Amino acid sequence: MVLVTILAVACTQTPSASRSPSPLTAGSIAWTDCTKGFQCGNLMVPLDYSHPTGRKISIALVRKPATGTPKIGSLLINPGGPGVSAITFLRDAATSYTNLNRHFDLVAFDPRGVAGSTPITCVDSPTLDNYLSIDSVLDDPQEKQTAIQAYKDFAAACQHRSGDLLPFMDTASAARDMDLIRGALGDAKLTYLGFSYGTYLGQWYAHLFPSHVRALSLDGVLDPAVPANQSALAQMVGFQQNLEAFVADCKARNCAYGQSGDPITKINALMTRLDSTPMNVGGRHLTRSLAMTGVLQTLYDQSLWTYLERSLIAADSNDGRLLLFFADFYNERNADGSYNNLWNGAYDSIYCLDFPAPQDLATYDALGPTFAKASPLFGPWSQYSEYQCALWPVKPKNPQGPLTVQGAPPILLVGGTNDPATPYVDAQSVNRQISRSVLLTRQGNGHTSYDSSACAKTAEDAYLIDLTVPASGTVCSS
User: How high is the pLDDT of residue 245?
Assistant: First the structure.
């Protein structure tokens, strides 16, 4: 899952898009075999829902037909991002959903602007290489000037290449796409499993189409009402806590990385060294920013901690291959040097249109002490991360605030107590915002719960299949 930061100004208004949308007739999907038991198809949807008879764009889908009978219907799955290809996710991870697949056709679609759907694109691969390796710890005037100019150039390139699409990449429009998909699939009501930013898509759907909901399981819940800086700060606390949990586990095991000094001190020293002297890795360079990205990726899931230790041991011996591998995985850089479009416009085009970013650079300058205190490692690195949206050529169209839901059946929310990317307090807050929602708590580290907790998976499957919600206050410890 991709790191999600909320860059919105606190607002309690109900978003203007909450007016019941006018019904549209769903199109049809021509399914064709696309190997390994999957079928692929496309659905044409309006680019601009305020002019539904105007230009259409393509939404790419993949389906794995149900393996058992009787079939309940379709289960739509979204991994989050925003900007991650749900099609790639489902093709790679379908075995995780074998039980659900007995009862449902598993269906994933790349949201508007993403991957196989009509895509946003901004720059070529060498330019994106440079952009993603720029140091974002802006601790001297030259670095700050370089980074801000890069943000401006990237935004201008997105406007140049994809300016006709940018105003329509918001998640409210993606939720409308999802309702047309539901109709095209022949389902009277939607059954949906959303992770991370996909929980925001699920909330928008329930907000706009409450009477069309059968079941929504939202795992790793994003709170749409949290102000930008507060959310970014909470994330830095979360990743710092997961880093400290890794270190505590390392010391408890008497791990190799902890035998020659304090691990956090050593990590900070490595990043300082890379700031002044990036590490040569097969003709590329491991910069501080890329190394930080590699460390961040391994903190999303506790099962990756052993790889984090190996990466750090290797880097201390001047071998940056593993850290660069994890950075490339996070950045969706392919072996041939090309990129998927996650960081080539998809993420920013959705995120910056969903949440208003503070416009004044001084606002970001003032974050320094608080962010550094929250996380000496991640805080300075993320201090200016949302400034890209301040420079984005298209501004949010919907006021920020809770996405209230009226008239939907119970919605399941799942939150991990030490989830770094979507803090547990977000799940608690959305539980209060959405009437009749039920919160399932998972105790533990890492982002999202379905694949890290047998208890959570069992509860989510029972809800999606049988509409059985767990008892209020249920806690999964494994």
Answer: 96
Q: Which residue has the tokens 């399941």?
A: 412
Contact in structure between 76 and 178 (CB atoms under 8 Å): yes
The domains found in the chain, sorted by start residue, are: 16-118+167-225+399-476 (3.40.50.1820), 121-160+228-331+358-391 (no CATH)
The mean pLDDT of the chain is 93
Does 52 sit behind a cis peptide bond, omega within 30 degrees of 0 on the bond before it?
A: no
Of 85, 196, 311, 375, which residue is the catalytic one? 196
C-beta of residue 240 within 8 angstroms of C-beta of residue 296: no
What's the Cα-to-Cα distance from 357 to each of 5, 13, 294, 336, 400, rounded to whole Å? 11, 17, 26, 34, 11
Q: Which of 187, 231, 375, 447 is catalytic?
A: 447
Q: What angle do CA 352, 130, 128 make, to 5 degrees?
A: 50
- Which entry of 135, 419, 426, 461 is annotated as an active-site residue? 419
pLDDT of the residue at 7? 28
Establish whether 285 is a catalytic residue: no
Residue 21 pLDDT level (bands cut at 50, 70, 90): low
Give phi and psi for 423, each to the nearest 5: -55, 150
Average pLDDT over residues 424-439: 97
The answer to whether 348 is a known catalytic residue is: no
Q: Is 419 a catalytic residue?
A: yes
Using CB atoms within 10 Å of the CB of residue 325, give its burial: 0 to 12 exposed, 13 to 18 middle, 19+ buried: middle
